[in-house]
Design goal:
It contains 13 helices and 5 strands. By secondary structure, it is mainly alpha-helical. Bound molecules: tryptophanyl-5'AMP (TYM). The site of tryptophanyl-5'AMP has 25 residues, from β1, α1 and α7.
Amino acid sequence: MERKRVLSGVQPTGALHLGNWLGAIRNWVTLQHQHDTFFCVVDLHAITVPHDPALLAQQTRQTAALYLACGIDPQLATVFVQSHVPAHSELCWLLNCITPLNWLERMIQFKEKAGKQGNQTSVGLLDYPVLMAADILLYNAHLVPVGEDQKQHLELARNIAQQRLNGRFASDGETVLNVPEPLILPEGARVMSLTDGRNKMSKSDPNDNSRINLLDTPDLVRKKIRRARTDAVTGLTFDDPERPEAANLLALYALLGGRSPAAAAQECGRMGWGRFKAVLSDVVVEALAPIQQRHGELMADPTALDRVLSQGRQRAETVAQASLERVRTALGLAPRTPETP
Ligand code: TYM
């Protein structure tokens, strides 16, 4: 039986945090064993908001190294940089021309980010979800493992594939490209901010204390957890909607410590905040140590990382080019004439 295709990506915007790991990358590691997996560093998405050109390339490599450090095996999965495969931008243009503008204007993340940037909002930010659809459709992905916040973007990618591409341009009974399904696992799909349990942990939060970055030192992790918002109630619980911070920190403890939510609640249910924060810090520091060690080794060997990204690019390009040709043909673009000798 043919293995299902999987594609996902993370933006190289600043440091990756626990949400990116637990909501996305952790699941990729499992999927690579059963499926044909493609994981890209989505650098073209990272430039849809103002960015520092002096840092982008380094952050792109650091993100790729973190994929590997978290357990992605380049022998099993294809790891590459989005901008290294020009078919992403090309398919994005073709999809732009068949996607209604008002589908994009409705996107929650666009409205949130555009609200912060006012009249500096770029066309790229509005187009972000179409580029994301291109990333997914180019690999004919069946499954897209992401966190909860990407649900609406995935729905858009499905609608573009189903209604606009296959619905309007497929010749009888055929599909142009596959319609992808989101894969959102309940645990870890929505890791919340340390400073406000009602907001998700996010790279774009200006307060670094709101998140634990995968490369934070043990001292910094302990400091951030010590400062994390608490409430006046003693004891930890998952199921009180009035206590989002308790639910979030207990969920982190369960996930990172490899315990079931019930076992974590049993173990920590009666602890005071001080005691609980100390045990949570130990579990977080212990979970991050092997990732940080491996990341350090990978960054110290740039040639090996280059090799992984170059092999990844070649594999990705072959698959992407075939899908792009299908879309070009379906849309009726003139075939390229073969080169004359
Ligand atoms: P990014 O970089 O914002 O997030 C990368 C992944 O991390 C997940 N995530 C979270 N999960 C749980 N809790 C959180 N607090 C949290 N914050 C982030 C996101 O859901 C995502 O899975 N638009 C994508 C990048 C992208 C992409 C794609 C993903 C571009 N093209 C194609 C899949 C397929 C994004 O959110 O990146």
